[in-house]
Amino acid sequence: MAGVGRKPNTEQQPAGPEPGGHAYMTVVARAKALIPQLRDRAANTEELRRLPPETERDLHDAGLFRIVQPKRVGGSELDYVSLVDCADMLGRADASVAWNFANLASHHWMLGMFDPRAQDEVWGRNFDTLIASSFIFPAGRARKVEGGYRLRGNWPFSSGVASCEWNMLASVVSSDDEADGIEYRIFLVHRNDYNIVDTWNAAGLRGTGSNDVEVKDAFVAEPMTVAVSNLAGGPTPGSAVNPNPLYTLPVFSLFPYVLSGVALGNAQACLDDYVDIARHRASTYSRTKLGDMQSTQIKIAEASAKIDAARLIMRSACIEAMADARRGHIPDIAAKTKSRRDGAFSVNLCTDAVSMLFAASGARGLFTTGVLQRQFRDAHAINSHIAFNFDAAGTNYGRVPLGLPSENLTL
């Protein structure tokens, strides 16, 4: 059993190959070094309903927002698995911080696939600029016009939006010609062209500031958009300036792994905290030391097995995806739906582990002065994301071997 009993388990490094060598280990170490102060700030982060300015500065200073940004603009350009590993570390401190880190860092990766003119427009102003998102396509409506698109809509769940200068907003593109069919497209919109609607009063991930975004009628130039079909794997509009295979990965089949490390770190912290308490606490009623009880020992074994399995699934999926990209292999729809299935399944394992430990903690886990209740709330908030809905991912996976078409139009 890996790394049980420390609070938090910061000594356990991600297992497996070192995808970026020294640079990779450096950023993971920087994420680890932030754990103590991020844990100390967690209650304040929840109260603010967004990341405190000092936390955002810490993430900037550590270079964490730029781990998958192209090197040509000063980013680290690390392998995709670095998103899982760094979110895992930060999630051991505060899931809200890890969630916003992973979201905002991944958008530098996605921008590397846009038309180079879009990259110049954003990074030419500020390499450190932050980009929010909402990839809920039915929330928007776009219409093709000369030179670009007119965009309108109201998008929920734009995490960290208050700190961002840009937003990647997903929309359906309408056409006067029904033969054109449905097109899914992502629009890069400047802060001046959308309004933030303060709606984020949530039970979990309270510190993410995942508010709504409203666009009434904005013009978005063609180069500031990208079709989802161009993000399905292989060369993208950004490949001419960013030739690293990192920027040829299929975005939406790997989408769960942008955020799955948050669930992993949150679950690992919950396990470590539970073990620490069990070592020293006695039962309120029998005065038996909790660590001497067989039921406690079994819970630790089961929770750690789920977490270790989840970590293996997440990291393996990302490492295999990079290996495919390096040899120019584009996964077929069966592989893509498997990736979505495994991403959802692995996060569900983490949620199960946290739920089991919460139940095993008894009434003491209910106190708001402790971290367990926050870890429980955050685990279920993470699991509520559509990418981690196993019914949806499992159904779509199961359709393919039965000869039925995938229902996920982004794959």
Mean residue pLDDT: 92
The CATH topology name of the domain at 131-230 reads: Butyryl-CoA Dehydrogenase, subunit A, domain 2
What is the correct CATH architecture of the domain at 131-230?
Beta Barrel
The low-confidence parts are 1-18
CA radius of gyration is 21 Å
So what's the overall shape? globular
Q: What is the terminal-to-terminal distance?
A: 36 Å
What's the number of helices? 11
The CATH fourth-level homologous superfamily of the domain at 131-230: Butyryl-CoA Dehydrogenase, subunit A, domain 2
Which CATH class of the domain at 131-230? Answer: Mainly Beta
Structural class: alpha+beta
Question: Number of DSSP strands?
Answer: 8
How many strands, what sense, and barrel or not for the largest sheet? 8 strands, mixed
SSE sequence, one letter per element? HHHHHHEEEEEEEEHHHHH
Helix share bin? 40-55%
Strand content: 5-15%
Task: Output the keywords.
411 residues, alpha+beta, eight-stranded mixed β-sheet
Write the layout of secondary structure elements.
Layout: H1 21-33, H2 35-48, H3 53-61, H4 81-91, H5 95-111, H6 116-123, E1 131-134, E2 140-145, E3 148-158, E4 166-174, E5 183-190, E6 195-197, E7 211-221, E8 225-227, H7 256-280, H8 294-326, H9 333-360, H10 372-383, H11 390-399
Parallel strand pairs: 1-4, 2-4
Antiparallel strand pairs: 2-3, 3-7, 4-5, 5-8, 6-7
Helix pairs in contact: 1-4, 4-5, 4-7, 5-7, 7-8, 7-9, 7-10, 8-9, 9-10, 9-11
Structure notes:
This protein is an alpha+beta fold and about 400 residues long. It has a domain at about 130-230: Butyryl-CoA Dehydrogenase, subunit A, domain 2, CATH 2.40.110. It is about 45% helix and about 15% strand. The chain has helices at about 20-35, 35-50, 55-60, 80-90, 95-110, 115-125, 255-280, 295-325, 335-360, 370-385, 390-400; strands at about 130-135, 140-145, 150-160, 165-175, 185-190, 195, 210-220, 225. It is globular and about 75 Å long.
